[in-house]
Design brief:
The chain is 68% helix and 5% strand. It is mainly alpha-helical. It has 2 domains: 159 residues, Farnesyl Diphosphate Synthase (Orthogonal Bundle); 153 residues, Farnesyl Diphosphate Synthase (Orthogonal Bundle).
Length: 330
C-alpha cells in the first residue's frame, strides 16, 4: 500500500478546509463531499484514528470511519463538561433513537436537530462534529444492512451503558468520578471493549470464520479495547481532573492502573495474533498493529516520563511506518 493512500486520507483539499457549516433545522450544509467530510472530522477529533483508518481498505475504511465518529458523538455527549447529567441522559436517548429511525431509507434529521450544539466550546472540533451529527447519521443509514446492524447494535449497548452510568452515583451533576477499579473496567468495556467487539464483527462480516473462533476473538477484543482506553485515561488524567472527570478511582494509585493497562496489553497482543491465525487481511492487521503499538509506546512514555507524557509526532509516524512496512511485506 505504501504512503500514498495514507497521505490522501490525511490531506483534506483546500475546498474541504474552507467549507463553512450552515446550521438550520438540524441540517448541516457544506461544500465538502462526504469523503472529505469524514476525513476532516477524523483529523479534527482524533490524531490516532485519522492515521489508523486510512490503513484499511475502502469499504472497511468507510464503515469504521463512520462508526468511530458516531461513538465519538456519544462520548462527547457523556463527557460534556459542565452539562448536567440529566441533560446528557436525554441527548443520549435521542441519539439512540436516531440510530433506529429511518423513513424511506432516509434519516429523520429533525429528531436530532436541537440540543446537540452548545455542549462544547463554540468553534471547537467537537462542537463541529456535534452540529454535523445529522449528516453523519445519514451516511450511517446508507451503509450495507449488515454493517448498519453491527454498528447499531454496538452503539446501542454502549449508549445503554452510558445511560446506566449517568443514572448511578458515579455521575454527580456535571461531574464524573470513578469509585472502584471494577467500576473503571466496566466503564472501559462500555466505551471501548464494545468497540473492539464491533470491529471484530466488521472485520469478518464476509468471511467463513466459525462462531467459536469469532467468540474467542470477541473475548480478546474486550481486552484490546480496554488497553487503548486505559492508556488514554492515564495520558489525559490531569486534564480530565480539571474538567471534573476523575477516571482513576479515588484511593487507587496510578501504578495500579498502569499495571492493569499492561495486563490488557497482553490480551491486545493475543488478539492480533488470533487475527493473523484466522487469515485477517493485511490492512486489518496493519490497522490493529498500529493502534496497539501506539498504545504500547504511550504506556512506555508514561512509565518513563510520568503523568502527561505523550509521544512526539516523529515517534507516532515511526510507529505508523513500522505498521505499514509490516503490511507491505505480508
Amino acid at each position: 500500500m505504501g504512503w500514498d493512500r495514507i497521505r490522501a486520507g490525511l490531506c483534506g483539499s483546500a475546498q474541504a478546509k474552507s467549507a463553512v457549516l450552515e446550521v438550520g433545522a438540524g441540517v448541516v450544509d457544506t461544500n465538502e463531499d462526504d469523503l472529505q467530510f469524514l476525513s476532516r472530522s477524523l483529523q479534527e477529533t482524533s490524531r490516532t484514528f485519522a492515521l489508523a483508518i486510512p490503513l484499511l481498505g475502502t469499504e472497511l475504511r468507510h464503515q469504521v470511519g463512520i462508526a468511530y465518529l458516531l461513538f465519538r458523538v456519544a462520548d462527547s455527549i457523556e463527557d460534556a463538561a459542565g452539562v448536567a447529567a440529566d441533560r446528557r441522559h436525554v441527548l443520549l436517548q435521542r441519539l439512540r433513537a436516531c440510530l433506529q429511525s429511518t423513513v424511506e431509507g432516509r434519516f429523520e434529521s429533525g429528531a436530532i436537530g436541537d440540543g446537540f450544539d452548545g455542549l462544547w466550546p463554540a468553534g471547537s472540533a467537537t462542537e463541529r462534529l456535534m452540529v454535523a451529527a445529522p449528516r453523519l447519521l445519514r451516511l450511517f443509514h446508507q451503509l450495507p444492512p449488515a454493517a448498519v446492524a453491527c454498528i447499531r447494535g454496538a452503539l446501542d449497548r454502549t449508549i445503554g451503558g452510558m445511560l446506566d452510568f449517568l443514572s448511578s452515583g458515579s455521575a454527580r451533576g456535571a461531574e464524573i468520578r470513578m469509585e472502584t477499579v471494577a467500576e473503571l473496567r466496566l466503564y472501559c468495556y462500555f466505551v471501548a471493549g464494545i468497540v473492539g467487539e464491533m470491529l471484530t464483527e466488521l472485520f469478518f462480516l464476509q468471511s467463513a470464520v466459525s462462531g467459536q473462533q469469532l467468540g474467542r476473538l470477541r473475548e480478546l477484543a474486550v481486552g484490546f479495547g480496554e488497553f487503548l482506553q486505559l492508556v488514554n485515561i492515564l495520558k489525559d488524567s490531569e486534564g480530565d481532573v480539571r474538567l471534573g472527570r476523575c477516571f482513576i478511582p479515588v484511593g487507587v494509585s496510578r501504578e495500579t492502573v498502569l499495571s492493569l493497562a499492561e495486563s490488557s496489553g497482553i490480551a491486545a497482543g493475543e488478539y492480533i495474533g488470533q487475527l493473523e491465525t484466522l487469515g485477517a487481511s493485511a490492512d486489518v492487521l496493519a490497522f490493529c498493529r498500529f493502534i496497539s503499538r501506539l498504545a504500547e509506546g504511550s504506556l512506555e512514555a508514561l512509565r518513563q516520563r510520568g503523568a502527561g507524557a505523550k509521544l512526539s509526532r516523529s515517534e507516532v509516524f515511526s510507529i505508523l511506518e513500522s505498521a505499514v512496512d509490516s503490511q507491505d511485506s505480508a
